[in-house]
Amino acid sequence: MAAQIVARKSLQSARIVVVGAGPSGIAAATKLIEAGFRNVVILEAENRIGGRVYTVPFADNVVDLGAQWCHGEKNNAIYETLQQNGLDLVESTGRVYDDYKCIRSNKEVVGDDVAESLKSIAFNSIPERQEGLVEYEGSLGAYLTEKYWNEVDKLGPNVDRVVAKEFFENFKKFESSVEASDHLFEVSGRGHLEYWICEGDLLLNWRNKGFRTFLEVLLKSSVESPLGLLDARVLLNQRVVQIDRSNGQNIKVKCSNGTIVAADHVICTTSLGVLKETHASMFKPSLPSSKIRAIEGLKLGTVDKFFVEFKEPFGPSEWTGMCFLWLEDDLKRLRDSNLFWLESVFGFYRVSYQPRVLQGWIIGPHARHMETLTEDEVLEGILWLLRKFLTFNVPDPVHFKRTQWYSNVNFRGSYTFRTLLADELRTGAWDLATPLTDDKGQPLLQFAGEATHNHYYSTVHGAVESGWREAQRLIEFYKTIPSRL
Q1: 348-385: string of b/e by CB count within 10 Å (b at 16+)?
Q2: Which domains are present in the chain?
Q3: Position 63 pLDDT exceeds 80
Q4: What is the rounded CA–CA span in Å between residue 132 and residue 189?
């Protein structure tokens, strides 16, 4: 019996199942394989790898339907991995999301001086490391609103408060897209301080190759072997419906098509949205209350994109993008129409290496409603919006694509944020990340993914770090095996 235990508890024979082939799952699996583990398999619900990294062909090269930028440089696992490997794969996107035009629904373009003044006030109000938030118990929305209007008041008669209000309503949608919240009044102000911003350029694009190039780096993929280290280890179209650890170390992972895979360890990287929807039935026995509180308290929001390809580059060449400011009467009429969802389309911007493409953004409940419409209905609404605001001709596009992250049962949203409810429940990513072990401390069920990172939630570098974290947990555990047997 002792010989059997030793044989099973080894790098060569330990059975490890990773649920999900997104960045965290790929990071965990590749690190385990490089450490010497041999029995590693990934179960992926989709018919592709990548998770919320999803690069697809479009227009002149590719677009990213999911994660789009490498956010920062210093202490960013993605950027530093590229540097360590001598890979020059990213570059600055520039000021596309700074120099956009502000356009009112009466087709008036707000003067650059006024627009820049309001942008400066709004962006400088975002609490990155402001001491006022250390003991703050309110929402990010409440904090931002007070800061913004205090600064606007200092401008006195030099600013039109009607335009300032229109701009702020748009800015709140912009910032909600960063948080992935329905609105800023559900985002924890204090918790916002625990999100760490990596120093350096926050919008590093992947040139004309897309974010998938980083996954190829992790995989060490090649033309002959696209999956590289994970060749023959990824099972696609395997949606996990139950993880049964009731028999201790002999865990059974069941898929919707009837497939059952036995494991000694399971690393679960499913999205927070999937956990919210399925945790009661997915885990046997049930998860501990601390983990359930984290699943219920944190939130996976909805942020969707539109990609509109035109025959020629769109609009004035000096415009990097545009945001939409609604006059009150126009907004009332919009809300009474079947195009009400367009209220949450806050802007369109140029795309790096895609001169003929405009990229738009939509958030929250209106994004979820948009996902239920046909693609033709969505495009009709988008063209109506552009023609409502712009004075120049808006030609019919040659190609259109939109995302539907919430509707996809394998994601149920875009990325996570810390809510006021999480503060009230005294929970956070740390509870979600805590592994479930046996009475000897052996990890049985582990959790990874951006939602499990205390400081880099909502990012791919956070997802990658969490995958490495859980792989390292197993590596450290197996280092102690010989001495304990």
Answers
A1: bbbbbbbebbbbbbbbbebbbebbebeeeebbebbbeb
A2: 15-53+208-297+418-480 (3.50.50.60), 65-96+301-402 (3.90.660), 113-193 (no CATH)
A3: yes
A4: 10
The answer to whether 358 and 351 are in contact (CB under 8 A) is yes
| Per-residue pLDDT reduced to its tens digit, 262-287 | 999 999 999 999 999 999 999 999 99
**Mean pLDDT, the chain, integer:** 94
Give residue for tokens 């000021």.
95
List, edge to edge, every strand of the sheet that includes 260-263.
260-263, 251-255, 240-244, 283-284
pLDDT value of position 248: 78
Residue with tokens 């308290």: 297
pLDDT tens, position by position, 21-44: 999 999 999 999 999 999 999 999
pTM for the structure as a whole: 0.95
pLDDT of 59 higher than 80? yes
- The arithmetic mean of pLDDT across residues 85-112, rounded, is 96
Give CA separation, 320 vs 81, 112, 388, 392, 394, in Å: 30, 13, 19, 16, 16
Q: What is the pLDDT at residue 302?
A: 98
Decide: 234 and 18 in contact? Cβ < 8 Å.
Answer: no
- The predicted pLDDT at position 481 comes to 63
pLDDT tens per residue, range 303-356: 999 999 999 999 999 999 999 999 999 999 999 999 999 999 999 999 999 999
Burial of 475 (0-12, 13-18, 19+ CB in 10 A): middle
CA atoms within a 13 Å half-sphere pointing along the CA-CB vector of 44:
22
| Nearest Cα to Cα of residue 161 among 215, 133, 121 | 121
Strands ordered across the beta sheet of 234-235: 234-235, 40-43, 16-19, 265-268, 443-447, 436-437
Q: Residue 370's closest CA among 402, 334, 393?
A: 402
Q: How confident is the model at residue 130 (pLDDT cuts 50, 70, 90)?
A: low
pLDDT for residue 1 is more than 50: no
